[in-house]
Structures are given as structure tokens and as C-alpha cells.
Description:
67 residues, 84% helix, single chain, mainly alpha
Amino acid sequence: xxxxxxLDLDVVVLSRMKQFRAMNKLKKVALKWNNHFEELKAxxxxxxxxxxxxxxxxxxxxxxVSP
Length: 67
């Protein structure tokens, strides 16, 4: 029979590991989004398109939200 403190600790550790994993996934998504944003912002003027940074952000948000 295990001690109740050990069981509670296991639940806490598992919960924190899941939170850590979720935060790492979020960081990866944010980094990818930022890289794509910078690429899009740099690439549009090369195509002769004149858009503001806020318009590029709106475009990226629309792309991200789309199914």
C-alpha cells in the first residue's frame, strides 16, 4: 500500500508535466507564426504589394483561424 502523500505527488507531477508540454507546444506555434509573419511581411513588397504591418497581421490571423 502506497503512502497518500506519494499518490498526491504523482498527480501533481503529472499535471505539471502536462502543463509544461502544453506550454512548449504553444511556444512552438508562436515561433512558427512569427517566422511566417516575418516572411510574409518581407515577401509581399517584393511582389509589388503595398500593405501595412497591421494588414499583414490581419491576413495572418485570418489564415490561422481558417479551418
